[in-house]
Structure formats: C-alpha cells, structure tokens
Amino acid sequence: MSLPTRYKLIFRVPPSALSKCKEAIFAAGAGRYPGAGQYTEVCFQTTGTGQFRPGDSANPNIGKVGVLESVEEVMVETLCVGKDVAMKAVEALKAAHPYEEVGYEVLKLENF
Q: Which residues cross the membrane (predicted)?
C-alpha cells in the first residue's frame, strides 16, 4: 500500500499574528493526520527570539531599515499530507502573515 507523501511546514510568526496564521494554514488542510483518530489542527509551537536587519529597499512590518532588530516570535511546526496541501498551506500562510518576507520551511518526510 502506497502512503501519501508527507511534508512538515515550519514557520515563525510574531505572537500577535499567531492565531490568524494557524487558522489560515489549518483551513488549507495542514495539521490533519490521516489515521483512524481523524486529528485536525495539530501543531507544535515554541517561543523564541528572531532577528533581522531590513535592507535599503525593505518595507518592514517591525523595525527600521538598516537597524538590527530582535523580536519575540513563535515557531510553528505542522504536518501536511500531500504536496497540494503543503502548497496551499504555504500560500495561505503568506496571505495571513504580517511580514514582508515570511520565514518558513517545507521538509519532505519519509514514510516508514
């Protein structure tokens, strides 16, 4: 039996936009486990400090051009079953996220 390809979506977001971003990715199908338990809206999140320095042509949501900024951010990890779900979740994340450049990763997972 062939299992669907699974992906892990990882992103960072300021706490003020956390709920909006999670709602968007879950509505796109992220966070659903394919097992008998039918779990939905599953994620893991941790709080930490992010840093960035906006370049000359940036229009930063937080901070000022040329100034190194450190901000509290929440890192969220969730499962996406199928490439189409991963792509829709990233699209939804970008639309909901307040940053000009959204920090995210998509990792292809192995099925064992």
A: none
End-to-end CA distance of the chain: 12
Global pTM reads: 0.92
* Residue pointed to by tokens 């490439």: 83
Range with lowest mean pLDDT among 1-15, 36-50, 65-79, 93-107: 1-15
Residue 14: phi and psi, rounded to 5, are -65, 145
Q: Which residues, other chains included, contact 84 with Cβ-Cβ below 8 Å and sequence gap of 6+?
A: none
CATH number for 86: 3.30.70.120
- Expressed as residue numbers, the domain containing 75 is 6-109
State how many domains the chain has.
Answer: 1
